[in-house]
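#struct-help
A.M.: can someone run this one for me? Single chain, 343 residues.
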Amino acid sequence: MAVRLSARVSAYLWPVGAAVLALSALWVAVGLGMHSGAVAFDAGWIEIIQGPSCSMRDILLHGRLPRAVAALLVGAALSLSGLLLQGVTRNPLADPFLLGISGGAGLAVVALQSLWPRAVDLGPWLIPAVAFGGALLAMLAVLHLAQAGGGRVSLLGLILSGVVINAFCAALITFLMARADPFRLRVTSTWLYGGLGFVAWSHLLGVALVLLGCWLFLRAQAHRLNTFGLGMEGAASVGVDARMLLRRSAYVASLLAALAVSVAGLLGYVGLIVPHVVRLAVGRDFRVTLPLAPFVGGLLLLVADVGARMAFAPEELPVGVITAVIGCPVLLALLSAQLRGRR
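D.P.: on it. Structure tokens below:
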């Protein structure tokens, strides 16, 4: 009884601690904004509260703060997508970037901007909707290519199919960008490498609502998602419609990846790293990992964004460069561990 109570208290403490760290990082990110280097760390929030300078208030409220909030939301979306994909496929290397989902979303958005530049004037929901369509098509293609006998999804086939779809999307993106005008090429290139510098409050409200809806759906399905630890056959043996749940999980993972791509472009490795960190801390139970993963992912991306802005100030690195620098060694370590485990 005491052990069970201790585990339950620990399960609540981890998300609370991660939330406190994420909010603290938000404070730091706003106070250390690059665009006004003369402002000290504490001065950022003082300027918001006292507001003697309209220009400074605009920088803080419409520059630094939405960018920091966007980092939290995008990191949360990628982390939930990676956690879901790794859980239902039982593959520790699955994430929206490696499986081609982000590539499909990116290709759809680049194609829209290249073939119909004025489409963005139709409304803020168009790009997320197009990104979701591209992500979903890529995910369905990967699942179809990875199917083995009896409708099973081959774990090796999943990774190989994701690599192929990702390469195909990257080739088409390169082709479309080669035909773009120089100004649009510059903006699109910055966005593709991952960036949060073009974020507005109008985009973030919808992203937050959809993210919350996805989280609530996953939380309601947490017990069923846990059955995938037994494999698809094992899940079916305990009364779970494994194929239907896998399909719904693919939709939700694609939607989460599309949200991230529509705001920040192609960001890799966040959805790969965070689920491993979360499982090391609290185990594999979705009922425990789902509350923790969004805060850890948001914290990681927020720290990466601050590093991208401050490392070579006043020049700014794409956030995707920082996440790749962090993620590549982790990916190599995971691959090495898997290979050693198969010997």
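A.M.: thanks! Residues 54-89 form the longest helix (36 residues).
D.P.: also worth noting: Confidence is low (pLDDT under 50) at residues 34-42.
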